[in-house]
Write a structure and sequence with these properties.
By secondary structure, this protein is an alpha/beta fold. It folds into 2 domains: 2-166, Rossmann fold; 170-275, 6-phosphogluconate dehydrogenase C-terminal fold, CATH 1.10.3660.10. It is built from 11 helices and 9 strands. It has helices at 10-20, 34-42, 71-78, 96-102, 146-157, 168-194, 199-208, 211-217, 224-233, 235-257, 261-275, and strands at 2-6, 26-30, 48-50, 61-64, 87-90, 109-110, 112-114, 135-138, 162-165. The longest helix is centred in the middle third of the chain and has 27 residues, at 168-194. The two termini are 36 Å apart. Bound molecules: NADP nicotinamide-adenine-dinucleotide phosphate. NADP nicotinamide-adenine-dinucleotide phosphate binds at residues 6-12, 31-33, 36, 65-68, 70, 74, 91-93, 113-114, 117, 121-123, 223, 226. NADP nicotinamide-adenine-dinucleotide phosphate (NAP) binds at residues 6-12, 31-33, 36, 65-68, 70, 74, 91-93, 113-114, 117, 121-123, 223, 226.
């Protein structure tokens, strides 16, 4: 199959690396910078690359992998080049707004979101097997052609991910809890630590930071553009999640002020058990 990737960064590059291992696929890449296109071809990540969306005329399936903020403009520029049968899918971290933007413009569209990433961005961050054992969500709507859904589902399943399907707005509410809220909480944690006014204490804290801080600060130290786009495009669901989180913090502050150690321990027993519902 001729697979097009628009936006050769962390996600687009990683998809290309994995699809390229199948001899039946030809990979065509479009990216913003010429240097990225040259590198992607030189490293064998794609068979052909260009800054010109005209390259996508030959593609049977196109994965849109640009930052969220560039999706609408990219789709507007891409559509005149597409063959009417071409299937379009995206990898954006927010689904309702993306599906509302693309579905009315291109019938053969299937919204998607691979739940995998690293703190890095750009083609240099792309890696093989990024999606293995990770959830990959597809968000078809009533008008989504079943053949397009089946094609995208079978392609992403070849990456050995765990495939899920849901409504775009259900996706956005769910990822607000487990992806977008953690980014904001983790970023706030780093900001709070940096506010330590005593330079010697801050320096000591930075030297003593170990595995716990590495785990809890990881997503807050990731791609700033991506975090800002999560807030912009998933604003209501993220605000609901952050408000509940603030409520939880207020409860905890109150319990600590009241020296209510038993309640705190009980709550930590509940969260210790509850964590297992989200991660193994
Ligand atoms: P990224 O590493 O910054 O990659 C995006 C790439 O797109 C850039 O490297 C850039 O390449 C290219 N680009 C930027 N604007 C473009 C444009 N107008 N037209 C064509 N190419 C353009 O970002 P990413 O993390 O892969 O994120 C891409 C998408 O994946 C986003 O929609 C994001 O929501 C989604 N996503 C991200 C993660 C994650 O954890 N990072 C996880 C799941 C989904 P050059 O400038 O080098 O050409």
């Amino acid at each position: 199959m001729r697979i097009g990737i628009v936006g050769l960064g962390l996600i687009g590059g990683s998809l290309a690396i994995d699809f390229q291992r199948f001899p039946e696929h030809t990979l065509l890449g479009v990216s913003r910078r010429g240097e990225t296109c040259r590198q992607a071809v030189a490293r064998g990540i794609v068979d052909n690359a260009s800054q010109d969306l005209g390259l996508m005329t030959a593609a049977e399936v196109v994965f849109l992998c640009t930052p969220l903020g560039a999706i609408e403009e990219t789709v507007n520029q891409l559509i005149p080049h597409l063959n009417p049968n071409t299937i379009l899918t995206d990898v954006g971290s927010v689904k309702a707004s993306v599906v509302e933007t693309i579905a009315p413009r291109w019938r053969n569209f299937v919204g998607g979101h691979p739940m995998a990433g690293t703190a890095e961005s750009g083609l240099d961050a792309a890696q093989a097997d990024l999606f293995v054992d990770r959830p990959y969500v597809l968000t078809p709507i009533n008008s989504t052609p079943s053949a397009a859904l089946e094609t995208v589902a079978s392609l992403v399943q070849s990456l050995q991910c765990r495939l899920y399907q849901c409504q775009p707005d259900e996706h956005d509410r769910a990822v607000a809890w487990i992806s977008h809220l953690p980014v904001m909480v983790s970023a706030s944690l780093i900001a709070a630590c940096l506010s330590e006014p005593d330079a010697a204490v801050l320096d000591l804290a930075q030297k003593l930071a170990s595995s716990g801080f590495r785990d809890t600060s990881r997503v807050g130290g990731g791609n700033p553009e991506l975090g800002a786009m999560m807030a912009k495009y998933n604003q209501p669901a993220l605000l609901r999640a952050l408000t509940e989180y603030r409520h939880q913090l207020d409860r905890l502050i109150n319990q600590i002020e009241q020296s209510n150690w038993e309640e705190i321990e009980q709550r930590l027993i509940e969260t210790q058990e509850g964590r297992g519902g989200f991660v193994e």
